[in-house]
């Protein structure tokens, strides 16, 4: 079984688990250090993904939001980078905009990835050098356009003037709670860009970075540098992902 096929099957199985908890009052805990909530659905999905994926690829390293990290993954050639449920707050609130985000990386770069939204039955997928799809149909990021007609997925704090070298560009800002879903929507060309201008956990963006790139866009850190994964401390310096307006956004940022 190819890596991408393995990820697609695992994501669908994860969706079956998560749907069983959705709108069913799952138990919720607050993580230490202000890291947000986690539900019993996150933990169940994580256990199943780890069991299935590690059984299929025992030589791959493992990095997941819901598994205690160690340095064993740093000694492997390939790694799984997983967010069992990206958008846990949306999941708790009954929104459909949460996703399973699953990537495989090699030499710091994603090589296969899926983002699956079970409640919308949207399967975004990509394999390096082979393009990106949504439910098996090819998807493409948008071409260049005037910044004042662009629509950007971003938290409100990212449009604070302190982040911008001059005036905040006059794009239209909108929002989705899942970073993975934001990246998928950019890859699909439904939005022109997404921004997150703070240290960003790898599991939130590893899969989406490949899907955007394979859709013809660019996914970089907030300075325009490469987004590299499987770091000893698994964070990158924010992310800017876009089609044709990527360079315009990077130039405008501090």
UniProtKB/TrEMBL annotation:
Keywords: Magnesium, Metal-binding. The keyword Protein biosynthesis does not apply. It holds the Pfam family Inositol_P. SUPFAM superfamilies: Carbohydrate phosphatase. CDD domains: CysQ (cd01638). PROSITE patterns: IMP_2. Belongs to the inositol monophosphatase superfamily. This is 3'(2'),5'-bisphosphate nucleotidase CysQ. It comes from Octadecabacter dasysiphoniae.
């Amino acid at each position: 079984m190819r890596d991408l096929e393995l990820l697609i099957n695992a994501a669908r199985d994860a969706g079956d688990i998560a749907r069983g908890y959705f709108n069913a009052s799952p138990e919720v805990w607050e993580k230490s250090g202000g890291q947000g909530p986690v539900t019993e659905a996150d933990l169940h999905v994580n256990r199943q993904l780890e069991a299935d994926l590690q059984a299929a690829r025992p030589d791959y390293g493992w990095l997941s939001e819901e598994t205690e990290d160690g340095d064993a993954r740093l000694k492997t050639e390939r790694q799984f980078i997983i967010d069992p449920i990206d958008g846990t707050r949306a999941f708790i609130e009954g929104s459909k905009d949460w996703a399973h985000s699953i990537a495989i990386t090699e030499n710091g770069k994603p090589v296969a990835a899926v983002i699956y939204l079970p409640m919308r039955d949207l399967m975004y997928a990509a394999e390096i050098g082979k393009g990106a799809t949504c439910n098996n149909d090819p998807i493409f990021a948008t071409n260049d356009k005037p910044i004042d007609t662009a629509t950007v997925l971003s938290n409100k704090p990212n449009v604070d003037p302190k982040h911008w070298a001059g005036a905040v560009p006059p794009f239209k800002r909108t929002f989705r709670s899942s970073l993975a879903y934001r990246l998928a929507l950019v890859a699909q060309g439904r939005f022109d860009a997404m921004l997150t201008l703070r240290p960003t956990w790898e599991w939130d963006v590893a899969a989406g970075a490949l899907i955007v790139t394979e859709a013809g866009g660019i996914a970089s850190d907030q300075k325009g540098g490469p987004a590299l994964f499987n770091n000893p401390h698994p964070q990158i310096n924010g992310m800017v992902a876009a089609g044709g307006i990527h360079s315009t956004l990077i130039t405008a940022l501090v």
